[in-house]
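Hi R.,

As promised on Friday, here is the backbone we talked about, encoded as structure tokens. Could you run it through your design pipeline when you get a chance and send me back a sequence?
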């Protein structure tokens, strides 16, 4: 990524991808042929995601090392980021004087219809999270937009009285939001694009795409419900 398009701030905004960043040409990467014509560009290649995830794991180890934590993975979009983040924390724990004993739990949310975030947030299953009482919780979310989803989820989790809550977000979109809803650990700050890939979907499509890409208008029409 060119310096003119990316800024770095490891503790707050993450890697900042500017609005005028054109992304990478799709022809430079391998991607499933069945998505030909459905994507505009690659905005974050898979290798860059992996490197940034390793850095976030180190930050989490620095802050939470020697604390037992419960990782709360937000499905479905967050499963790949969560799996890779947990793997890297485990690797660091095996090669350090500090360690993070972890348990992983999953919670499923739904707030999108096509490419629009709705006000109607569903916590599917309405699980009893009473086991979080007095625990250190790390919520792992793939995308933070307006912050409404995280705000609602935090309120839900806080009702079970955990000792501490931290949030790791792979992507934060530049939209109007309450800054108090920003994650504690941010991978990338991106323009307000609808992105897919790396387990992020559009109506359940594109989860099998390794890179994070901007979906094309024709792609939206093709898979619209």
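Update: got your reply. Pasting your designed sequence below so it's all in one thread:
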């Amino acid at each position: 990524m060119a310096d003119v398009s990316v800024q770095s701030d490891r503790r707050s905004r993450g890697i900042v991808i500017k609005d005028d960043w054109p992304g990478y040409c799709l022809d430079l990467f391998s991607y499933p042929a069945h998505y030909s014509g459905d994507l505009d560009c690659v905005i974050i290649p898979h290798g860059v995601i992996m490197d940034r995830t390793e850095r976030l794991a180190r930050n989490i180890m620095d802050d939470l090392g020697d604390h037992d934590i419960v990782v709360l993975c937000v499905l479905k979009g967050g499963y790949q980021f969560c799996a890779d983040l947990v793997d890297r924390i485990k690797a660091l724990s095996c090669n350090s004087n500090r360690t993070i004993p972890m348990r992983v739990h999953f919670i499923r949310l739904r707030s999108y219809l096509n490419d629009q975030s709705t006000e109607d947030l569903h916590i599917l299953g309405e699980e009893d999270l009473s086991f979080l009482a007095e625990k250190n919780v790390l919520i792992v979310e793939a995308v933070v937009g307006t912050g409404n989803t995280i705000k609602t989820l935090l309120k839900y989790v806080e009702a079970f009285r955990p000792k501490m809550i931290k949030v790791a977000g792979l992507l934060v979109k530049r939209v109007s939001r309450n800054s108090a809803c920003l994650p504690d650990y941010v991978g990338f700050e991106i323009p307000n694009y609808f992105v897919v890939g790396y387990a992020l979907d559009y109506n359940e499509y594109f989860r099998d795409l390794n890179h994070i890409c901007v979906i094309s208008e024709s792609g939206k029409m093709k898979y619209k419900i």
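One thing I noticed while checking it: The domain at 47-193 is CATH 3.40.50.2020 (Rossmann fold).

Thanks again,
M.
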